[in-house]
Amino acid sequence: MRRDKVAVILDGARRAFRAHGYAGTSMDAVVRHSGVSKATLYKYFPDKRALFHAYVQDECVRQASHVFTIDADGSDDVDATLRRAAHGVVRFMVSDEAIEIFRMTVAESANQPEVGRTFYEAGPAVGIARLAAYLARMTEKGLLTVPDPERAAERLAELCKAGLYYRRLLNLDVSVDAAEAARVADAAIDMFLLAYGPRRPAAPPIGGKD
Fold first, then answer.
1. Distance CA 106, CA 110 (A)
2. 174: how many CB neighbours lie within 10 A of its CB?
3. Please, are residues 168 and 99 in contact by the beta-carbon 8 Å criterion?
4. What is the dihedral of CA 132, 137, 138, 141, to 10 degrees?
5. Cα–Cα distance between 89 and 196 in angstroms, integer?
6. Integer CA distances (angstroms), 60 to 84, 114, 209, in order
7. Phi/psi class of residue 198: alpha, beta or left (left: φ > 0; alpha: ψ in -120 to 50)?
């Protein structure tokens, strides 16, 4: 029963924070959006700070399923697997939901550093770890050359942000062009594979040994 009540409260908090932002959301607003009583809300969350922290954690866990998802069978088709993952992560990162939670977290992390830590550990770090594990497996098989999988995963995540993500984040683009999102993802994988693709043996010098 507790889990059900908390889920209802967090759903109401999600709608309230998305509609009004952190500063503009009151506990009364969460009561209205969730439909629970004020006594029930305060039973589980003593103040807005605690509620926001729980909301960020819940939202990141929910959204983490979209970040660098890799096929369960760990496909050896590296190009197709990474390209599919990159397309998914670019579409996700420019979505309204991802942009809004990131903006709110950054705005509040100066006053609530633990919120920023929770956001990173429950969100981006999950995707980075998932991708790094795949890169390590493919390197062991000789299909990639990735000496530091975690750093390489972070670099691929940044490549997926090139252009479109920052324009969305800064509100320069209010809509998402699916074709452009696909181009960003494909360009990210093209550059990544140039850097981390399997190394070919050097060709012998023409004419043989001197």
1. 7
2. 8
3. yes
4. 160
5. 19
6. 21, 14, 59
7. beta
- State yes or no: pLDDT of 1 exceeds 60: no
HSE toward the beta carbon, residue 194, CA cutoff 13 A: 7
Report d(CA 163, CA 90) in Å as an integer. 11
> How far from 141 is each of 15, 76, 82, 138, CA to CA, in Å?
46, 9, 16, 5
User: Over the stretch 45-104, which tens digit does the pLDDT of each residue have?
Assistant: 999 999 999 998 888 887 776 677 776 555 789 999 999 999 999 998 998 888 988 999
pLDDT band at 197 (very low <50, low <70, confident <90, very high): very high
Q: Is the distance from CB of 17 to CB of 52 less than 8 angstroms?
A: yes
Residue 110, pLDDT score: 87
Q: CA–CA separation, 60 vs 139, rounded Å?
A: 29
155, 156, 158, 164: CA torsion to nearest 10: 160
**What gap in Å lies between CA 210 and CA 190, rounded to an integer?**
37
Q: For the chain, give the percent of residues with pLDDT over 90.
A: 56
- CA angle 175–177–181, rounded 5-degree value: 120
